[in-house]
């Protein structure tokens, strides 16, 4: 039950539009895997996953086993890949729920096989220059393939991840792609084209859609957010943002000149001012550094003044508004819009982090949930 009037609104029709738009750019054989890790980048993994699948995504990617399990518990039957490291003692869970795991260590295979009934499906991870997870040279790939030669491991994919595919300078992308081709050679020799080869995140799939092998792992773009400022300024195609955050004024008062407000008294009125209070704060993921940023009220930008509290914050209003007036943190109000990218820039971070940091206390409302 929701009693408060503060919510993240997720328009799932935007998710659908973003999938359809990307699909048009990709060759027919290149599938879209929807990345819904970190609770769908804060948007809600289950609702986004269902919409993405209904809109043409071929499967899902998550970071950790728990995330895959909760998608299965929600009744989702599509292929799911866990892209991060899974402790080998839990491979039995992946086996039972038909979840694909990522592997890249011979010792891991040794340990994993002791926890399997029959077999588990694996994607081989190759490190072509991200320096995070994966096999880094051809000899190691060969050794790994030998260790894999057991009936309990069913290889269904091989992939890598780009460290820098989101800028105008594409040299490192090209280098990583070339390295990928070298590293998959021994894999191709054994598995031919029976497994799925994939490299691209949102940035790579936007910039190089025709080089994306068998699938892309579409994350940030799925939510209508751009992978980088460069891609926001030079978008190969337009994305539709799914998220808005709205609340309402719960208190409005007039303060005299020279009055102070909120913790630490960091704000003092410069004249007679209308000040509104809104029931949202850092306990919802609206970070303290949002102080001095803006919200939309009555289609106009109005500054957040004083410290952001855990549950509330204050806004300087251009005039008296009634209690209940709509307040928009992210999204559109009349002709004005505040994008998550703009918020991220103010917070000196990236849009990915801002939506991930929305806490479970902020209710998620879904629009266009049903196909
Ligand atoms: C998070 C992640 C993605 C998705 O990246 P976006 O930039 O959000 O598209 C793809 N692959 C891996 C391995 C990831 O960790």
UniProtKB/TrEMBL annotation:
- Give the protein's function: Catalyzes the interconversion of L-alanine and D-alanine. May also act on other amino acids.
Range of residues in the leader sequence: none
Q: Which cofactor does it need?
A: pyridoxal 5'-phosphate
Recorded GO molecular functions are: alanine racemase activity; pyridoxal phosphate binding
Active site (UniProt)? 37, 263
Q: Which domain of life is it from?
A: Bacteria
Please give the PROSITE patterns that the UniProt record associates with this protein. Answer: ALANINE_RACEMASE
Q: Which GO terms describe its biological process?
A: D-alanine biosynthetic process; peptidoglycan biosynthetic process
Q: Name one GO cellular component term.
A: cytosol
- What is this protein's name? Alanine racemase
- Report the InterPro entries cross-referenced here: Ala_racemase (IPR000821), Ala_racemase/Decarboxylase_C (IPR009006), Ala_racemase_C (IPR011079), Ala_racemase_N (IPR001608), Ala_racemase_pyridoxalP-BS (IPR020622), PLP-binding_barrel (IPR029066)
Starting at the broadest rank, the lineage of the source organism is:
Bacteria, Bacillati, Bacillota, Bacilli, Bacillales
> What's the gene?
alr1
Its transmembrane ranges are none
